[in-house]
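HOLO CASE FILE
Compound: fe (ii) ion
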Amino acid sequence: MDPEDLIQVLLKEHTQIRAELREFQEAVRHGENKKAASLSLKLRKILTQHIAYEDAELLGFLTRAYGTDGTSDAIEIFHQHKPILELFEEMVAASSASPSDAVAKAARLTELIRQHTMAEEGRIYPCACSAQETGLLKKQV
Ligand SMILES: [Fe+2]
Ligand SMILES: [Fe+2]
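Model generated. C-alpha cells follow.
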C-alpha cells in the first residue's frame, strides 16, 4: 500500500473508531451488556490494527522520507497509543462491574482519541502525503 492509500484507510478508521466508541458508551449507559461486549471486541480489533499500521507502516514511510530527526513529532504523537490502549482495556473491564465508571472512562477515552486523531490528521498524515507527492518517497513495489 502506498502512503496515500494507507491514509485513506486510516482516516476511515478514525471515523469508525469514534462512532463505535460513542455506541459503546450508549450501550453501557443503557445497560445493554451484550451489545457493549460485542462492540468492545470490534473496537479492540480495529484499534490494535490501526495502531499497528501507524507504528509500523506509516512511521516507516516517514522515516524513509524525512529520516529519524524528521519524525520526532510523529513519534511523540504515537507515544499516546499505549495510554489509549490501556484506558480502553480499563474501560472494558469496568463495563460489567461498574457501568458509571465505564461511562466516565469512555468519556476520557473519547477526548484522548479526539485530540490524538486531530493531531494525526492535522500534522502527521499531511506529511506522509506530501512526501509521496514531492517524490521524497519512492512508490512501493
Ligand atoms: Fe494513532
Ligand atoms: Fe490514527
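CASE NOTES: The pocket of fe (ii) ion (ligand 1) is lined by residues 51, 54, 81, 116, 120 (CB under 6 Å). The chain has a mean pLDDT of 92.
CLOSED: yes
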